[in-house]
Amino acid sequence: MTDARGSARQEGERPARYAPGTPCWVSLMVHGLQATQEFYRALFGWEFRPGPQQLGPYVRALLDGREVAGMGVLPPDLHLPVAWTPYFASADADRTAEAVRCCGGTIGVGPLDTSDAGRLAIGSDPSGAVFGIWQAAAHTGTAVTEVPGTPAWNELITFESARTAKFYEMVFGYDEEPVVSVDLDYVTLRLDGRPVAGVYGAGSAVPRDRGPHWTTYFTVADLDDAVELVVHLGGQVLKPPREGDHGRTAAVADPEGARFSLLQQSS
């Protein structure tokens, strides 16, 4: 998250159904599901219950009984990174997947039905960043935000913002708000005037071992305590806490190397 991010706060529970193009879910694919559950249980207070098993063992994370994220075992035949992946709402996953292909992206998984929960596809943009598409049925997505332990924001780290932002605009119908600055290459993606995601052009600072990728920010009550807990639980700090216009943030990774960020929002 950069200081260019717009406020995306939505207090309390989410609407019954997300508008197409809105980030509606985040999911983590890992090798050791049980150990990963224990890490996030201790960090965010999540509990878990089984979810759709079409791609293998999968659980949904709950906070006070409400679904906030998903977590599954990375299938050995899928060449996907151990990473948090945002899913964007779609009224028609097949049509959105075709738009991804037409705009220069690729679809690696699906579209496929996940029991009665909905229909999904997993794709990548032209720079290689992986994201998901979700057509909701029984499962509409993240049920609560703006409390500690819930997703707060999704930001794409890529080589340069303009061309990549155009891809997402063509696929999901976003408007963009570029930052006019010689020091910052950043575009905020907007939907009906609301900021929904960010695209940060990092140039040569994009991690060589990871490439362009989406980063999910999770809200925490106390950033310093959360960072200390990440390290205690076997994770690592990638960028130490720093101040921003919308709160304090830190970039971290879990024990399997999945990157994410923590956000203590300004009061």
UniProtKB/TrEMBL annotation:
It comes from Streptomyces thermocarboxydovorans. Signal peptide: none annotated. This is VOC family protein. InterPro entries: Anthracycline_SecMetBiosynth (IPR052164), Glyas_Bleomycin-R_OHBP_Dase (IPR029068), Glyoxalase_6 (IPR041581), VOC_core (IPR037523). SUPFAM superfamilies: Glyoxalase/Bleomycin resistance protein/Dihydroxybiphenyl dioxygenase. Residues 22-136, 150-265 form the VOC domain. PANTHER family: CONSERVED PROTEIN (PTHR33993:SF10), GLYOXALASE-RELATED (PTHR33993).
